[in-house]
């Protein structure tokens, strides 16, 4: 193996270095460009020119603390080797030569090993070094940090500022947790090892104190204050087997709950939950691919006459064994595996087919994600253009869904109403908004939240809220629908309150067929 070293101080040096580099062999080449910062004219132009000279070479950008010089090292192997294996082969070659050559070659070897165990942005030991160090530990706890808002920072300010933030966080953690070696794992995650046997409650107190010490960190970038929030995770299990996956599950759980930290314990059985989700993912994929997503229909009656006037179309999944799954189970999974749009379109398609030649109105539930999706929006508009049921469909929008872009919602409502479709606010009384929501949404119907309706015979507060909603809706000319009518007593109450329509198991249970 031939090793060639070059030193540059400015982009003016690039042509002369390239002239010498072009004399080297072009095959089986590994190139290291080592500099203080990578996004400079010197580094980028050098990299581009080297790529032209060595089109099949592997070019790696590394970092050192020298702000003035940029070092170029070209490793040329004499044997033929696949490019993805060249790093390992260079390491083996350097290792072999240490027994044959002088100390200067040993320095190259050590330097190369150091580079592969060091994060090149922060100069902190990296995940490979952490794995290596964990193999040497017996009783320990692994603590992982995650920067909560890093993706937002990176998207808003750009990757240069994002890199600066990562560097500053690394230095901050080194200074704040000076008794432990800080590792940078990947992206926005850091870690350190507590090299002692520590119980759950002691670890909990430790993490609580640690979080209070590191929170409220602010990075100053050219006069701009960038606020950094952390989430922590650890494990009481000192076994290095699967330690990364365990702490990762704890970190994910802490983020979902929005809490400062979480400690993994074997009794939590997170693995079982992951296994269930994987199995459910397979069931959802099969159902989507084999048209096993179907609407179930539940009758909605005129409260005064008990005559069926409408049906709500409710999504259900039928698995291979004929078991019916609720949307509470499969909709979150469908979103995670990116088939949710197919589920929505399937329910819309099959519901329209059922009511195409019917006299009944029918309602379809839409989430805010559906309304924000241009794919779903266009699908609905095409369906309304070409269906005889366009003036009988009601789109139910969840009041509890947070609306980020109200202009898109207004556009959706305006467009569907052009074809005679109506709008219902579902679960009204459960969400974050107030009565102004009704006028903004131009609703035709209010579906009063079942959590209120089901208790109006025993809870005076629920009764008062429902009564207020009904009176307010009448003044606005909006029809009301009571959900969760589960008994004759509740049915009598909603009649007494003047609710226009009623729905619930007392009236009809969801079924694959119309009544």
Automatic annotation (TrEMBL):
Top-rank lineage group of the source organism: Bacteria
PROSITE patterns: EAL, GGDEF
Residue ranges of domain GGDEF in the record: 138-267
SUPFAM superfamilies in UniProt: EAL domain-like, Nucleotide cyclase
One Gene Ontology MF term: cyclic-guanylate-specific phosphodiesterase activity
Annotated transmembrane regions: none
Residue ranges of every copy of the EAL domain listed in the record: 277-515
NCBIfam families: GGDEF (TIGR00254)
Protein name as catalogued: EAL domain-containing protein
Gene source species: Candidatus Sulfurimonas baltica
Taxonomy of the source species: Bacteria, Pseudomonadati, Campylobacterota, Epsilonproteobacteria, Campylobacterales
């Amino acid at each position: 193996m031939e090793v060639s070293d070059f030193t540059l101080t400015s982009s003016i040096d690039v042509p002369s270095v390239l002239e010498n580099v072009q004399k080297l062999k072009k095959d089986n080449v590994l190139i290291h460009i080592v500099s203080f910062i990578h996004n400079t004219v010197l580094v980028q132009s050098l990299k581009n020119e080297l790529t032209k000279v060595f089109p099949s070479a592997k070019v790696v950008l590394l970092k050192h603390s020298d702000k003035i010089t940029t070092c170029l090292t070209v490793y040329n192997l004499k044997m033929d080797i696949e490019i993805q294996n060249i790093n390992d082969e260079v390491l083996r070659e350097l290792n072999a030569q240490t027994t044959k050559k002088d100390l200067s070659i040993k320095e190259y070897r050590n330097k190369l090993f150091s580079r592969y165990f060091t994060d090149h942005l922060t100069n902190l030991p990296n995940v490979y070094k952490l794995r290596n160090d964990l193999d040497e530990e017996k009783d320990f706890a692994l603590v992982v940090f995650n920067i909560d808002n890093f993706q937002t920072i990176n998207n808003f300010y750009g990757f240069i500022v994002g890199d600066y933030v990562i560097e500053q966080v690394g230095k901050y953690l080194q200074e704040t947790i000076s008794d432990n070696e800080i590792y940078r794992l990947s992206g926005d995650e850091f870690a350190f090892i507590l090299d002692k046997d520590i119980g759950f409650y002691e670890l909990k107190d430790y993490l609580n104190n640690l979080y209070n010490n590191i929170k409220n960190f602010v990075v100053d970038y050219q006069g701009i204050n960038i606020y950094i929030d952390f989430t922590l995770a650890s494990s009481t299990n000192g076994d290095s087997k699967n330690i990364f996956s365990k702490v990762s599950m704890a970190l994910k759980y802490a983020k979902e709950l929005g809490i400062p930290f979480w400690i993994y314990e074997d009794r939590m059985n997170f693995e079982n939950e992951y296994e269930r989700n994987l199995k459910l993912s397979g069931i959802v994929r099969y159902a989507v691919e084999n048209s096993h997503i179907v609407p179930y229909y539940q009758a909605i009656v005129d409260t005064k006459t008990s005559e069926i006037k409408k049906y709500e179309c409710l999504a259900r999944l039928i698995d291979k064994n004929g078991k019916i799954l609720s949307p509470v189970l499969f909709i979150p999974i469908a979103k995670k595996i990116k088939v949710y749009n197919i589920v929505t379109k399937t329910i819309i398609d099959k519901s329209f087919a059922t009511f195409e030649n019917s006299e009944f109105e029918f309602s379809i539930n839409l989430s805010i994600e559906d309304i924000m999706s241009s794919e779903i929006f266009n699908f609905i508009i095409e369906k309304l253009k070409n269906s005889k049921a366009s003036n009988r469909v009601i789109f139910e929008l969840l009041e509890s869904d947070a609306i980020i872009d109200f202009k898109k919602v207004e556009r959706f409502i305006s467009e569907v109403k052009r074809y005679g479709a109506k709008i219902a606010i579902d679960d009204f009384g459960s969400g974050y908004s107030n009565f102004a929501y009704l006028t903004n949404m131009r609703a035709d119907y209010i579906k009063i939240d079942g959590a209120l309706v089901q208790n109006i015979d025993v809870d005076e507060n629920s009764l008062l809220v429902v009564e207020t909603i009904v009176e307010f809706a009448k003044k606005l000319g909006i029809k009301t629908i009571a959900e969760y009518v589960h008994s004759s007593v509740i049915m009598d109450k909603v009649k007494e309150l003047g609710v226009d329509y009623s729905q619930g198991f007392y009236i009809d249970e969801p079924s694959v067929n119309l009544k």
